[in-house]
Amino acid sequence: MKNVSSAVIILFAATSSENPGKLKKDHDTIRVKDLKVSVPFYRDILGLEQIDNAGLGDHIKWFKLGNEVQVHLVESDIVVEKNKGVHSAFNTQNLTKFMEFLKAKNIAFENGDGEKNTFTDRPDGVRQIYFQDPDGYWIEVNDNKLP
Asked: What domain of life does the native source organism fall in (predicted)?
């Protein structure tokens, strides 16, 4: 029986590493209380480009990042529990400049331990900060070198 479970694990590892669906990130959906508050934040603070929402109505706004991944904001009364461990992560080539921008906009940020106005310096050399959007969702911005 021990050999059978080992074979299953090896088979799963081989199959999952091949990514048969060739999956790529498409979008995240975020439920927000007020689009009049959230749209300017995602557009002006995060710098996302607002795009057509495929005719889904005025309660849904779509944005895209430079890599074509989308963020969909849906106005809703549903309350979602927020937790720093569940966050969206974005990347910048200049984290220091972005931190200065947040300070100029009076947007509080912190490191992973909750220390204000500073960053986490991960063992791999990537620096990261965390802050919240108008609905309290946690956002990470880091300076990881993406391909």
From this structure: Bacteria
Distance CA 100, CA 79 (A): 31
Could you identify the residue written with the tokens 């508050």?
37
37-57 average pLDDT score: 97
Query: Going from the N-terminus, what domains does the chain have, and what CATH number goes with each?
Result: 23-77 (3.10.180.10), 90-147 (3.30.720.110)
DSSP state of 18: H
Burial class (CB in 10 A: 0-12, 13-18, 19+), 73: buried
Angstrom distance (rounded) from CA 90 to CA 71: 11
pLDDT tens for residues 97-126? 999 999 999 999 999 999 999 999 999 999
Find where tokens 């809703």 sit.
Answer: 76
Strand partners, 62: 51, 72
Residue 130 CA to residue 128 CA, distance in Å, equals: 7
